[in-house]
Amino acid sequence: MPATNLTALKNAQRSLLLKPLDAAVFLAPWYTAAPTAFTDASGALQTLPAAFKPVGLIDKKTGVAFARGITAAPIEAYGELQPVRNDITSDITTIEFQPQQTTALTLELTTSANLAQVKSNATSGEVFFPQPASEQITYYSAIIIGKDGNDAEPIYVFKVLPKVAVSKFGGEQWNPTEVLAQKLTMVAFKDDTAGYAVAHGFGGLGWKKIVAQTGIAPAA
What we know:
mainly beta
């Protein structure tokens, strides 16, 4: 074997350090199919299907937090210090974010109400609607897009969750230093049509320039 050093073996590449400097969450009625590609041949971002609506501004401190919780069932054997078998029995992905804009979409998310038939008062503009008195789960299809780099050579990070639902409400806190908003947690479910619960993607002109360095081979 030829001689080397740790720096060479480590293969440190700073260009592969990705940091989403901006992000957006898009939701559509379940099941709305996600695009088969998010960028064109030049790496330019393409528009999403009209059904996917943006939640708008998101709290900076919270950002968009993805969590994956795995539960395993290890089998132990007499005389063995480590499990002799381990099976995954649960694999749950959640996303957490705090939408800051007051829109029909964010109101539906935070109240579980269906605002499709709610109209503002033609004279005063007032809007009034009840929160559902019984449990009501609404499923959505979600796309989350993050962007690193600049507008000239962006690197986009995509996550597609074809079936999600709000599983936790952070509650509202009214005070003079915060906007009217509440943190939401959504849980991902496997969708039978899509065939998965979570999918990941990368694209953009900036990504196009570094994809070879990632070790992902191009299509034949």
